[in-house]
Amino acid sequence: MTKIIRVGVTFPPDLLRDFDEVIRKMGYENRSKAVQDAVRMFVSERKWLQEERGTQTGVLMMLYDHEVRGLESALTDIQHHYTNVICSTMHIHLSERDCLEAIAVKGDVAEIRKLSHELTAKRGVKILKTVIVSV
User: Fold this and answer.
1) How far apart are CA 51 and CA 59, in angstroms?
2) Residue ranges per domain, the chain?
3) What percent of the chain has pLDDT over 90?
4) In angstroms, rounded to a whole number, what is the distance separating the alpha carbons of residues 87 and 58?
5) At residue 97, what are phi and psi to the nearest 5 degrees?
6) Dihedral (C-alpha) 46, 48, 54, 56: value to the nearest 10 degrees?
7) Distance between CA atoms of 121 and 113, rounded to whole angstroms?
8) What is the torsional sign of CA 83, 85, 86, 87?
Protein backbone atom coordinates (compact mmCIF):
# COMPACT_ATOMS: atom_id res chain seq x y z
CA MET A 1 0.00 0.00 0.00
CA THR A 2 1.21 3.51 -0.85
CA LYS A 3 2.08 5.74 2.08
CA ILE A 4 -0.57 8.43 2.67
CA ILE A 5 0.31 11.90 3.96
CA ARG A 6 -2.35 13.91 5.75
CA VAL A 7 -2.49 17.66 5.01
CA GLY A 8 -4.75 20.46 6.18
CA VAL A 9 -6.41 22.81 3.72
CA THR A 10 -8.45 25.94 4.41
CA PHE A 11 -11.48 26.87 2.30
CA PRO A 12 -13.76 29.88 2.21
CA PRO A 13 -17.16 28.60 3.44
CA ASP A 14 -18.94 29.22 0.12
CA LEU A 15 -16.31 27.29 -1.84
CA LEU A 16 -16.44 24.34 0.55
CA ARG A 17 -20.24 24.27 0.38
CA ASP A 18 -20.14 24.31 -3.42
CA PHE A 19 -17.42 21.65 -3.46
CA ASP A 20 -19.39 19.39 -1.14
CA GLU A 21 -22.52 19.80 -3.25
CA VAL A 22 -20.69 18.95 -6.48
CA ILE A 23 -18.93 15.89 -5.08
CA ARG A 24 -22.16 14.65 -3.49
CA LYS A 25 -23.94 14.88 -6.85
CA MET A 26 -21.03 13.08 -8.51
CA GLY A 27 -21.24 10.27 -5.97
CA TYR A 28 -17.95 10.72 -4.15
CA GLU A 29 -17.90 8.95 -0.80
CA ASN A 30 -15.55 11.47 0.82
CA ARG A 31 -13.78 14.78 0.30
CA SER A 32 -10.30 13.28 0.28
CA LYS A 33 -10.83 11.36 -2.95
CA ALA A 34 -12.42 14.42 -4.62
CA VAL A 35 -9.55 16.69 -3.51
CA GLN A 36 -7.00 14.13 -4.75
CA ASP A 37 -8.73 14.00 -8.14
CA ALA A 38 -8.87 17.80 -8.35
CA VAL A 39 -5.18 18.12 -7.46
CA ARG A 40 -4.29 15.39 -9.97
CA MET A 41 -6.12 17.30 -12.72
CA PHE A 42 -4.42 20.59 -11.72
CA VAL A 43 -0.96 19.00 -11.71
CA SER A 44 -1.57 17.26 -15.03
CA GLU A 45 -2.72 20.49 -16.69
CA ARG A 46 0.17 22.53 -15.29
CA LYS A 47 2.76 19.91 -16.26
CA TRP A 48 1.42 19.91 -19.82
CA LEU A 49 1.62 23.69 -19.94
CA GLN A 50 5.18 23.69 -18.62
CA GLU A 51 6.36 21.13 -21.18
CA GLU A 52 4.95 22.82 -24.31
CA ARG A 53 7.40 24.66 -26.57
CA GLY A 54 7.19 26.98 -29.59
CA THR A 55 4.31 29.04 -30.92
CA GLN A 56 0.90 28.35 -29.41
CA THR A 57 -2.59 29.81 -29.62
CA GLY A 58 -5.28 29.69 -26.98
CA VAL A 59 -7.44 31.39 -24.42
CA LEU A 60 -6.91 32.26 -20.77
CA MET A 61 -10.26 32.25 -18.93
CA MET A 62 -10.02 34.22 -15.70
CA LEU A 63 -12.67 34.58 -13.01
CA TYR A 64 -11.92 37.27 -10.46
CA ASP A 65 -13.44 39.44 -7.74
CA HIS A 66 -13.34 43.00 -9.05
CA GLU A 67 -13.91 44.40 -5.55
CA VAL A 68 -10.47 43.28 -4.37
CA ARG A 69 -8.60 46.52 -3.91
CA GLY A 70 -6.16 47.29 -6.71
CA LEU A 71 -6.79 44.02 -8.56
CA GLU A 72 -8.25 45.42 -11.79
CA SER A 73 -5.39 47.89 -12.11
CA ALA A 74 -2.83 45.15 -11.46
CA LEU A 75 -4.45 42.84 -14.03
CA THR A 76 -4.45 45.61 -16.62
CA ASP A 77 -0.80 46.44 -15.92
CA ILE A 78 0.19 42.79 -16.32
CA GLN A 79 -1.70 42.50 -19.60
CA HIS A 80 -0.01 45.63 -20.94
CA HIS A 81 3.36 43.91 -20.45
CA TYR A 82 2.24 41.03 -22.70
CA THR A 83 0.88 42.83 -25.77
CA ASN A 84 3.26 40.66 -27.82
CA VAL A 85 1.10 37.57 -27.07
CA ILE A 86 -2.34 39.02 -26.24
CA CYS A 87 -4.53 39.28 -29.35
CA SER A 88 -7.81 40.28 -27.73
CA THR A 89 -9.74 40.33 -24.46
CA MET A 90 -13.41 40.08 -23.61
CA HIS A 91 -14.75 41.20 -20.23
CA ILE A 92 -18.04 39.85 -18.85
CA HIS A 93 -19.78 41.04 -15.68
CA LEU A 94 -21.20 37.96 -13.95
CA SER A 95 -22.47 39.46 -10.71
CA GLU A 96 -21.97 42.42 -8.40
CA ARG A 97 -18.48 41.15 -7.57
CA ASP A 98 -17.44 38.58 -10.15
CA CYS A 99 -16.02 39.22 -13.60
CA LEU A 100 -14.95 36.77 -16.28
CA GLU A 101 -12.24 37.74 -18.69
CA ALA A 102 -11.33 35.77 -21.81
CA ILE A 103 -7.85 36.61 -23.05
CA ALA A 104 -7.00 35.35 -26.55
CA VAL A 105 -3.29 34.63 -26.89
CA LYS A 106 -0.91 33.70 -29.68
CA GLY A 107 2.85 33.51 -29.56
CA ASP A 108 5.73 31.99 -27.67
CA VAL A 109 4.38 29.53 -25.13
CA ALA A 110 6.99 30.59 -22.56
CA GLU A 111 5.55 34.13 -22.64
CA ILE A 112 1.98 32.82 -22.44
CA ARG A 113 3.01 30.66 -19.48
CA LYS A 114 4.56 33.67 -17.70
CA LEU A 115 1.39 35.70 -18.31
CA SER A 116 -0.75 32.87 -16.96
CA HIS A 117 1.40 32.52 -13.84
CA GLU A 118 1.41 36.25 -13.12
CA LEU A 119 -2.37 36.53 -13.43
CA THR A 120 -3.00 33.40 -11.34
CA ALA A 121 -0.82 34.66 -8.50
CA LYS A 122 -2.86 37.82 -7.90
CA ARG A 123 -5.07 37.91 -4.81
CA GLY A 124 -8.68 38.03 -5.95
CA VAL A 125 -8.18 35.84 -9.02
CA LYS A 126 -10.41 32.87 -8.24
CA ILE A 127 -9.79 30.70 -11.29
CA LEU A 128 -7.54 30.90 -14.30
CA LYS A 129 -8.07 28.15 -16.87
CA THR A 130 -5.64 27.94 -19.76
CA VAL A 131 -6.61 26.25 -23.01
CA ILE A 132 -3.73 26.05 -25.49
CA VAL A 133 -3.61 24.48 -28.96
CA SER A 134 -0.54 23.94 -31.14
CA VAL A 135 -0.36 25.87 -34.42
Assistant:
1) 17
2) 13-48, 54-134
3) 63
4) 10
5) -110, -35
6) -80
7) 12
8) positive
Domain 54-134 = CATH 3.30.70.1150: yes
What pLDDT is attached to residue 118? Answer: 95
The string of pLDDT tens digits covering residues 34-52 is: 998 888 877 766 666 666 7
Q: Say if residues 32 and 79 touch (Cβ distance below 8 Å).
A: no
56 Cβ partners below 8 Å, 6+ apart?
A: 105, 106, 107, 108, 109, 112, 132, 133, 134, 135
What mean pLDDT, rounded, does the chain reach? 89
DSSP, collapsed to helix, strand or coil, labels residue 4 as: coil
Give mean pLDDT, residues 30-34. 90
